[in-house]
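Help needed: design a sequence for this.
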């Protein structure tokens, strides 16, 4: 066993030289079936750690990741066998996988670096894409070197064979995700319903949804004449992770208990656990709620807070997932159109999603306060969801808004807390008119809520 481990170390050292484009020969590698098995184990172990880094902080180990490893290894074995046959060199069948996989640990580590929590916020989406292409090119060049090192130097056209063989050898790693069921080794713990759960598309649920939506809207109280009222709307359209439910529930609880929105708040969410209990988060329901609120408020006096949370898709749209229903995603422009159509003038919009700062340009104006959980191009550590409230929801709604009397001050408190925890950097845009309007907003049972325009101007981030 000691001999095998020593040989593995020599293979990894030689592979490192190959990956760094240092001189290395086939003789530097120890080629055997035992070494092939050990190299595969090392490669899989690195993949397990890499998937753990990419997974949300609530994740569990899944043996389904083994399917992907076996599938990719099978494709690599096929490519190696084909090269061995074409080159009429049986030794290539074992040599090529060992040499290639021995050179991959450094590439695997480099591939996961952009996903590290402390590195990811520093990189733009363009930088991440560029790094991805660099890694793919690196893999190809290393594969070419692997074939060149393994090929018999006495045979003709060694260089041409190396390029063609490298392309064939690397194909499994490039195209395996398109051909096979490559599942990660770590899967996020979510709230996906089991086989016995009620389908959101069943007739009973759809009928109940109509009833629940009507009841929720009927439960909204009219505005209080002579007082600036605050209304709260929570919207969490992704049913895959229960953390988003916790986010909107935390926000509604704080707004009801601390900011006096009880009777003036409504939450729509998608969750397999509440299909027959709470209104779905759909564009149709959101439009209906905002139109109703627009009718019962004093548009010149009252303020409406809309909190949306979940992962985002193309063009920064808020992803709506509630299988088997096919739902439309919510875009920043779409939310603005809904608010405009409802004649809601004074707005506080809180967005918690990946790169939430992209929503600011579409939503900001003189009469709107926009708070985004992260700057443009930044993926928050918890924007993929988890089991409990995300870091932003806890910091802003769970702590700052619950203790403070000032929206701008609560944002600053949350921003400092998140910075101290290295859990995100929220941004804000506050129009001068909404800053002045917030001065007349009364906190439930606690006197006045004051939003200093000077503080707002200092805290505004565009």
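Sure. Designed sequence:
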């Amino acid at each position: 066993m000691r001999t095998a481990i020593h040989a593995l170390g020599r293979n990894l050292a030689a592979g490192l030289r190959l990956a760094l484009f240092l001189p290395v020969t086939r003789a530097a590698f120890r080629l055997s079936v035992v070494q092939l098995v050990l190299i595969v184990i090392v490669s899989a172990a690195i993949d397990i750690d890499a998937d753990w880094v990419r997974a949300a902080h609530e994740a569990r180990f899944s043996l389904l990741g083994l399917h992907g490893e076996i599938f990719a290894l099978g494709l690599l074995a096929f490519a190696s066998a084909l090269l061995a046959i074409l080159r009429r060199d049986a030794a290539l069948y074992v040599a090529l996988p060992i040499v290639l996989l021995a050179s991959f640990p450094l590439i695997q580590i480099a591939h996961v670096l952009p996903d590290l929590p402390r590195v990811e916020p520093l990189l733009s989406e363009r930088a991440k894409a560029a790094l991805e292409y660099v890694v793919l090119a690196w893999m190809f060049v290393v594969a070419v070197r692997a074939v060149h090192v393994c090929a018999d130097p006495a045979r003709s056209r060694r260089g041409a064979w190396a390029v063609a063989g490298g392309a064939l050898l690397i194909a499994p790693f490039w195209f395996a995700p398109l051909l096979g069921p490559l599942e990660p080794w770590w899967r996020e713990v979510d709230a996906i319903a089991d086989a016995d759960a009620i389908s959101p598309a069943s007739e009973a649920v759809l009928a109940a949804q109509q009833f629940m939506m009507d009841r929720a809207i009927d439960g909204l109280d009219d505005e209080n004449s002579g007082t600036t009222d605050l209304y709260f709307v929570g919207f969490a359209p992704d049913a895959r992770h229960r953390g988003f439910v916790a986010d909107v529930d935390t926000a509604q609880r704080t707004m009801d208990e601390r900011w006096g929105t009880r009777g003036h708040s409504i939450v729509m969410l998608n969750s397999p656990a509440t299909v027959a209990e709470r209104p779905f988060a759909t564009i149709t329901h959101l439009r209906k709620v905002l139109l109703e609120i627009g009718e019962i408020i004093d548009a010149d006096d009252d303020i409406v807070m809309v909190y949306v949370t979940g992962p985002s898709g193309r063009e920064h749209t808020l992803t709506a997932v509630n299988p088997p229903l096919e739902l439309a995603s919510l875009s920043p422009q779409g939310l603005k159109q809904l608010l405009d159509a409802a004649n809601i003038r004074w707005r506080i919009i809180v967005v918690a999603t990946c790169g939430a700062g992209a929503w600011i340009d579409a939503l900001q104006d003189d009469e709107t306060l926009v708070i985004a959980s992260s700057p443009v191009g930044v993926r928050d550590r918890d924007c993929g969801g988890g089991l409990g409230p995300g870091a932003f929801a806890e910091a802003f709604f769970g702590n700052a808004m619950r203790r403070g009397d000032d929206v701008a001050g609560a944002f600053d408190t949350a921003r400092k807390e998140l910075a101290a925890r290295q859990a995100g950097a929220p941004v804000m845009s506050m129009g001068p008119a909404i800053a002045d309007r917030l001065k007349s907003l009364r906190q439930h049972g606690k006197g006045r809520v004051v939003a200093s325009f000077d503080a707002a101007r200092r805290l505004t981030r565009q």
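Residues 291 and 341 are 7 Å apart (CA to CA).
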